[in-house]
Design goal:
670 residues, alpha+beta, Glycosyltransferase, 2 domains, four-stranded antiparallel beta sheet, binds alpha-D-glucopyranose
Length: 670
């Protein structure tokens, strides 16, 4: 199935790459019972077969006739559907042409995606989303990498072409910071490592390898560009005034979003971004090579985990790129607008969920192995919240997007209410839970999720400081996961998912619990570790996730940049500097490990990769953020008062008379 990706196709064809061993020549069996009556599978002779490599599957076009039963707002039918990636002939006679052809390529796979796609009822959005046919404007604009075009594109992001005031300001800041401060030897070495990890595709930089240890004989997928891992690299480049690699990354990964993805005959929802991609070189005839981008949507990943965070990071990075370069033209492009909408629609689609938080499976974010975080993990919620805020900022406001923007606003409001109210714990709240009544059947219940007080873990009773508090890791019916997850808490500060008071309190807690969360290497991914029976049952006896290792309480230097940004936002740069100092003393000597083990982060992780790029980039980004406070301030969000207005204070008739929003507002307004 994956071989189909390497097929070289001629542009402007309506092509569906068949999945050989799936029924109906590649169309997964839909859950809809009347599938057969909807589908005609035709070979379309208009379209050229792929070149004659033996492994190339034949190219077919499927025509789909939708029946009455299809929801008017549901996924588009095949004739309107999505794009494909086209590879580029590179290598010996490197042509520098990248035909990211898009067009209105038919893909019945999408039409019969087994996911339910409830679209925002929005005609114009559908027009962009579903338009098709050979004569319409391509769904995704072509990136023409002809030399002239490359130059034209590059020029847009070159310093000399700065048109935008913001960009000017930022660059001035970057330059004066550069002039004021000589790079240390450690920083110089780190920059060299970061640059050495850059991956090119047809001559252009498109991302960074996850790890770049020349002595690693078994890199698994660490020789790929991970979407989440590239974010700190991208921030480092942007803060240095180098936007090209980020722009290329955003556009290339946007193309991958449209890929036909199949995991055992099942097609995940449209809009999904891959966890990672690899640039592969495929031999052609005549000593030529073809470079292809080969994405992994989870179909190869260990555990087949869904990369839910990828699309959210993509949107967050897009906004950061525009903020720091001033290249707002990028977001105005039709394909970029469509990309944002696809991701947001996937997240906003209706399901059986009762909560505004996003329901995901275990391992769908930075913690990409089973760690008992299925359900509504905080990390995903905070990324979801900031991606919604970014999308709202970047979506072109017109008739075509107004319903989507309305849906975004409603979700933002409901989500922040939910998290602020139900995920928050501090001494007072734990005492409340400790005295909870259970089995309350009514809409008035105080203990809405039926949490049995016995659930409060012993460690927490001793651990929670007088000052400070945090957002718990997960909330489900009758279940609160009280573990402290660092990334979710830090990103809640950065995105203002928490109230200003909560954000302050989280940093107070980190300061109070420094020896547990930072100790000898910043920062612990979560606290505490799962031990004994908990480890056995919850991780499924995962030998990589033994207590205080890897995802199970290991210390991850990459988290330094999110910590620095959160500290800067809250005026606590002292904390960030202290943590950076600690990291700086060990990281270069230890060869930039991926993570550290033990309760206080004393040892290099048992199976940690060395020269892990996001450890390097996390450090560089932290330094650059501190040196460029104005640029840093473009990367976080303040409280949104309009959202506070939209909020209906659901708790107004409960025992806690004021909901956190009103509290937040009154705190800010006094
Ligand atoms: C590990 C991490 C994941 C990261 C990947 C590549 O799987 O858990 O977050 O993206 O390595 O570095």
């Amino acid at each position: 199935m994956r071989a189909t990706k390497f097929v070289k196709m001629k542009p402007c064809c309506r092509i569906l790459l068949p999945c050989r061993n799936t029924p109906f020549l590649g169309v997964p069996i839909p859950k809809s019972s009347n599938f057969a009556s909807h589908t005609n599978c035709l070979f379309d002779s208009h379209f050229s077969a792929p070149n004659d490599r033996t492994s190339s599957p034949r190219v077919f076009v499927f025509k789909t006739i939708l029946g009455q039963s299809q929801k008017p707002n549901s996924a588009p039918n095949s004739n309107w559907s999505q794009s494909r990636i086209f590879s580029t002939t590179c290598g010996c006679n490197f042509s520098k042409r990248a035909h990211y052809l898009v067009g209105s390529v038919a893909s019945n796979v999408k039409s019969f995606s087994t996911s339910i796609e409830t679209r925002v009822n929005d005609k114009n959005f559908e027009r962009i989303y579903v338009q098709g046919g050979l004569n319409v404007k391509p769904l995704v604009e072509k990136i023409d990498l002809d030399e002239d075009a490359v130059k034209k594109e590059d020029d847009r992001i070159e310093v000399k072409d700065v048109e935008n005031d913001v960009k000017n300001e930022n660059l001035k800041e970057a330059e004066s910071a550069d002039a004021a401060k000589e790079e240390s030897e450690i920083e110089k070495d780190a920059w060299k490592l970061l640059r050495d990890s850059v991956v090119t595709y047809c001559g252009s930089p498109v991302g960074t390898l996850a790890a770049n240890d020349p002595n690693d004989k078994q890199p698994l997928n660490y020789d790929q560009v991970f979407i989440r891992d590239f974010v700190p690299s991208a921030f480092a480049f942007l803060l240095k005034g180098e936007g090209e690699i980020v722009r290329n990354f955003l556009l290339h990964t946007l193309q991958l979003q449209s890929w036909e993805k199949t995991v055992d005959c099942y097609s995940p929802g449209q809009g999904l971004m891959p966890a990672s991609f690899k640039v592969r070189s495929v031999a052609l005839d005549d000593n030529k090579f073809e470079e292809v981008l080969d994405p992994d949507f989870g179909e190869s990943a260990i555990g087949r985990v869904a990369p839910v965070d990828s699309g959210l990071w993509w949107i967050i990075l897009l906004r950061a790129y525009v903020k720091l370069t001033g290249d707002s033209g990028l977001t105005e492009r039709g394909d970029v607008q469509t990309g944002i909408k696809l991701i947001i629609n996937l997240c906003l689609s209706d399901g059986f969920d009762m909560f505004p938080s996003l329901l995901v499976t275990d391992g769908s974010c930075m913690i990409d192995r089973r760690m008992g975080i299925h359900g509504h993990p905080l990390e995903i919620q905070s990324l979801f919240y900031s991606a919604l805020r970014c999308a709202r900022e970047m979506l072109a406001l017109d008739d075509g997007s107004k319903n989507l923007v309305r849906a975004i606003n409603n979700r933002l409001s409901a989500l922040s209410f939910h998290i602020r109210e139900y995920y928050w714990v501090d001494l007072k709240k734990i005492n409340e839970i400790y005295r909870y009544k259970t089995e309350e059947y009514s809409t008035e219940a105080t203990n809405k999720f039926n949490i049995y007080p016995e659930q409060i873990p012993h460690w927490l009773m001793h651990w929670i400081p007088e000052e400070g508090g945090y957002l718990i890791g997960n909330l489900q019916p009758a279940h609160m996961d009280f573990r402290f997850f660092t990334l979710g808490n830090l990103w809640s500060i950065v995105s203002s998912l928490g109230t200003p008071k909560q954000n302050e309190a989280i940093l107070n807690l980190i300061e109070a619990k420094w020896d547990d969360l930072i100790a000898q290497m910043p920062l612990k991914i979560c606290f505490p570790a799962l031990e004994s029976e908990d480890w056995r049952i919850i991780t499924g006896c995962d030998p990589k996730n033994t207590p205080w290792s890897y995802h199970n309480g290991g210390s991850w230097p990459t988290l330094l940049w999110q910590f620095t940004l959160a500290c800067m936002k809250m005026g606590r740069t002292d904390l960030a500097k202290k943590a950076i100092d600690i990291a700086e003393r060990r990281l270069p000597l230890d060869r930039w490990p991926e993570y550290y083990d033990t309760r206080n982060g004393k040892f290099i992780g048992k199976q940690a990769r060395l020269y892990q790029t996001w450890s390097v980039a996390g450090y560089l980004t932290s330094k650059l953020l501190l040196e460029n406070p104005n640029m840093a301030s473009l990367l976080f969000w303040e409280e949104d008062y309009d959202l506070l207005e939209i909020c209906v204070c659901a708790l107004s008739n409960s025992s806690r008379k004021k909901c956190s929003r009103r509290l937040a507002k009154s705190q800010i307004l006094v």
